[in-house]
Specification:
- The chain is of the alpha+beta class.
- The chain has 2 domains: 8-84, 2-Layer Sandwich (GMP Synthetase, Chain A, domain 3), CATH 3.30.300.20; 95-154, Ribosome maturation factor RimP, C-terminal domain (SH3 type barrels, Roll).
- It has helices at 8-24, 55-72, 95-100, and strands spanning 29-35, 41-47, 80-84, 105-114, 117-128, 131-136, 141-145, 149-154.
- A 5-stranded antiparallel sheet has the order 7-6-5-4-8. A 3-stranded mixed sheet has the order 1-2-3.
- Helix 1 crosses helix 2.
- The radius of gyration is 20 Å and the shape is elongated.
- It starts with 7 loop residues before the first helix and ends in a 17-residue tail after the last strand.
């Protein structure tokens, strides 16, 4: 009796476990695994809590993971495997990510508007008791519960000029 295709959640869970074993041997963590049903693309995002993920890291994990995936034959059709870092504008998933990136700039989408605004940008400040202090571009620190944050990403773009700063003129 033929079984149907494996559910996507099962595939991503198995890939995550395989990738975690390979990544941990290199001091890396699996940040995220993305795969859609019938998809042609399987993405694995790696992270290194104590530093950056390099091209050599991605290449080594990709080679080992690809060999294991071929051996296990989890995905019954042709697909492309991509292994990379989460990038400069990486998602911030939980309080630990905010603590790790304290002092960096982030963009936040809010579950409910605050002062009529549903998205904010600012420097990540203190995190305590389930609350985040965000030093907004307007200069006002704002405390909010993490439960109020729908999604967040690092924002590597330089902040806009603050009050009293002079814009550079073209000559």
């Amino acid at each position: 009796m033929s079984q149907g295709p494996m559910p996507t959640d099962d595939i991503t869970g198995l890939v995550r476990r395989m990738a975690e074993t390979i990544a941990s041997a290199r001091g890396l963590e699996v940040f995220q695994v993305e795969y859609k049903p019938g998809g042609q693309l399987l993405r694995v995002f790696l992270d290194r809590p104590s530093g950056q993920v390099g091209l050599d890291d991605c290449s080594a994990v990709s080679g080992q993971l690809s060999a294991q995936l071929d051996e296990q034959d989890l995905i019954p059709h042709a697909y492309r495997l991509e292994v990379s870092s989460p990038g400069l504008d990486r998602p911030l998933r939980d309080e630990d990510d905010f603590i790790r990136f304290r002092g960096e700039f982030a963009k936040l989408a809010l579950a409910q508007p605050v002062n009529g605004v549903s998205s904010l940008r600012g420097r990540i400040g203190e995190c305590r008791n389930g609350m985040l202090r965000l030093e907004t571009d307007g200069g006002e620190p704002l405390w909010m519960p993490f439960s109020q944050i729908r999604s967040a990403r690092l924002d590597p773009a330089p902040p806009p000029p603050g009050p009293g700063s002079k814009a550079k003129k073209k000559r």
